Amino acid sequence: MSTHINAKDGEIAELVLLPGDPLRAKFIAENFLENAVCYNEVRGMLGFTGTYNGKKVSVQGTGMGQPSISIYVNELFQFYNVQKAIRIGTCGSINKDIALRDVILAQGACSDSGINTQRFNGLHFAPIADFELLMNAYEAAKKLGIKANVGNCVSSDLFYDTKENWKLWAEYNAMGVEMEAAELYTLAAKFNRKALAILTVSDLILLGGATTAEERQLTFTNMMKIALEAITK
Predict the structure, then answer these.
(1) Residue 35, exposed/middle/buried by CB under 10 A (0-12, 13-18, 19+)?
(2) Whole-number pLDDT of residue 224
(3) Average pLDDT in the 123-130 region?
(4) Exposure on the CB side of residue 102, measured as CA atoms within 13 A
(5) Mean pLDDT of the region 152-177
(6) What is the 3-state secondary structure (H, E, C) of the chain?
(7) Angle formed by the axes of helices 181-191 and 66-79, to 10°?
(8) What's the mean per-residue pLDDT of the chain?
(9) Helical packing angle, 221-232 and 131-144, nearest 10°
(10) Which residues does the annotation mark as catalytic?
(11) CA 230 to CA 232: how far, in whole Å?
(12) 79-124: per-residue pLDDT in tens?
């Protein structure tokens, strides 16, 4: 039984986009999906289902951080038979060649989180994207004329990282820091589902610079287009 998603059987599609911001979910539903209907308002974490390219697609807000996305993805996979999930979110660039508003396709997700340390009893797990979704997204980006950078991201538990641990990840060529992908990829592996994270650079951690909250909520449409094309292919 789902605790945090108040949807009836059949109201959520097998294909789901996962923005952290519920208002981004609303924006996608209103601007990209046909005949979108809201199925969830519990805790303000909006969820909608409509169609795209003739296929049923849902978009569900997840909140910030791995514990939050873990709740929603567990429920989507276990109780609503979601088969493919693409996170669409923002990240901070830690690579000098990746600029504001650039798109990153996260093929893997490093992490400083203790979640998998607990889950695997101190062993290490490598959270990676589904290859088919990754390829679909890369091909969709090329078709749309959008540059897509493919590489590792970092899923950190700390938004305000006073120790600047990101510098160590940067030495190993990680592209951007976000807060959710590692848990999404781990749960997809556990439940044998397909998952991908598509990220838009909202901040330049390495070089300095940032976008506004309004931009993050209402623009960044390139990653939305890529995700919708990839998940419905």
Answers:
(1) exposed
(2) 97
(3) 97
(4) 21
(5) 94
(6) CCCCCCCCCCCCCCEEEECCCHHHHHHHHHHCCEEEEEEECHHHCCEEEEEECCEEEEEECCCCCHHHHHHHHHHHHHHCCCCEEEEEEEEEECCCCCCCCCEEEEEEEEECCCHHHHHCCCCCCCCECCHHHHHHHHHHHHHHCCCEEEEEEEECCCCCCCCCCHHHHHHCCCCEEECCHHHHHHHHHHHCCEEEEEEEEEEECCCCCECCHHHHHHCCHHHHHHHHHHHHC
(7) 30
(8) 95
(9) 120
(10) 203
(11) 6
(12) 999 999 999 999 999 999 999 999 999 999 999 999 999 999 999 9
Mean pLDDT (whole number) for 127-139: 98
CA distance 201 to 83: 27
Per mean pLDDT, which range of 20-29, 62-71, 154-163 is the poorest? 154-163
How far apart are alpha carbons 129 and 189 in whole angstroms?
9
Query: Tens digit of pLDDT for each residue in 202-219?
Result: 999 987 888 887 777 666
| Amino acid letter for position 54 | G
In this predicted structure, what is the pLDDT of residue 219? 67
Q: Which residues pair with 24 in a beta bridge?
A: none
Decide if pLDDT at 32 tops 90. yes
pLDDT of residue 218: 64
State both tokens at 52: 């795209």
Cβ-proximal residues to 18 (8 Å cutoff; 6+ apart), any chain: 59, 60, 61, 62, 69, 72, 73, 85, 86, 87, 88, 89, 180, 184
Contacts 24+ apart (CB under 8 A), 121-124: none
Give how far the C-alpha of residue 54 lies from the chain's centroid of Cα atoms, to the nearest Å.
23
CB 103 within 8 A of CB 149: yes
